[in-house]
Each structure stands twice: as structure tokens, then as C-alpha cells.
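Team,

Forwarding the record for the chain on the shared tracking sheet. I've put the sequence and predicted structure together so nobody has to dig through attachments.
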Amino acid sequence: QVQLVESGGGLVQAGGSLRLSCAASGSIFSINVMGWYRQAPGKQRELVAAITTGGSTDYADSVKGRFTISRDSAKNTVTVYLQMNSLKPEDTAVYYCNAEASPDGILKRYWGQGTQVTVSS
């Protein structure tokens, strides 16, 4: 199993910055991809950014050039960061950390509890 703990959300004015963190523990050796999704009220959950174990990244068009995803590996944990700059009110959403892993040979998706990001105009 993989456990994900998020931190770093909050309230910020438009144009400001926030950094989200997601610490993964458990069967981290089996993680293939980690990423951030977001869900605004009345909308579907959407991919914001993802990073593979090899360091390849992918971003939603709406955040390219403003958000940066990165990862840091330690002995028993992997932490993924989402640096969010030039925030806009439309970035307001609950942000969820996600990991795709196969600890028992079967691909599974794990989710964090979500952290609220609110951008005021």
C-alpha cells in the first residue's frame, strides 16, 4: 500500500504563489507516477501535473509556465512538490495528490485527502 499526506494549501491573492507538498510512504518502490489533480466546485477532477520516477513531467495547458512539479526521494519516503506561481482565481480548487503504483503486481491509484487552494481576485 501507499499512503499520501498533503500539505501547503491556503488562501492567496491573484498573482501570488503557493507550494504544495505530498509525502508518500509505504510501498514507494512500486510507484511509477505521481501527480496532482484538482477539482473545482461543479467540475470534474482534472490532471494538473505529473512526474514519473524517471523525472519526465506533464502539465495541463492551463498551468504550463506557471506551475512546476518536482520530486525528492529519501530512504523511506518520496515527496512531490507543486510550485504554483502567478496564481489565478480559476486555480481555486481542492488539490489532490495521486500515485500510481503496483505494490502487489496490480496497478492501483492512491489519493491523498485533498488540500484547498483559494485564489482571491
